[in-house]
Amino acid sequence: MRRAARHPVDFPVIAEHRDRGDLSLHIANISAHGFMVDNSEGLDRGERVIIRLPEIGRIEAYVIWVREERAGLQFERIIRLDDFTRMMDVLQPNPRLRRGR
């Protein structure tokens, strides 16, 4: 059972991978606990990456699951609600897409 609501986004990021260097990933949805990419670049379960998010900065995440081209990653720490809200204002500029606060 999911711990937090997923918010749809369309956000490309450059992920830093320890062995493979920089990877271009596309975040399709995000929550305070993690995110899903729809172009997993061959990531495997357990691998770690570092990404940079608006209002949050650099944050580490590790791969929880992989299915075909999608992968779910969990942040190494939960994003605080006020920081998450500010980030979503940048990632979802259209207020119709934002969930109620």
UniProtKB/TrEMBL annotation:
It comes from the Bacteria. Signal peptide: none annotated. InterPro entries: PilZ_domain (IPR009875). One of its GO terms (molecular function) is cyclic-di-GMP binding. It comes from Candidatus Andeanibacterium colombiense. Residues 2-78 form the PilZ domain. This is PilZ domain-containing protein.
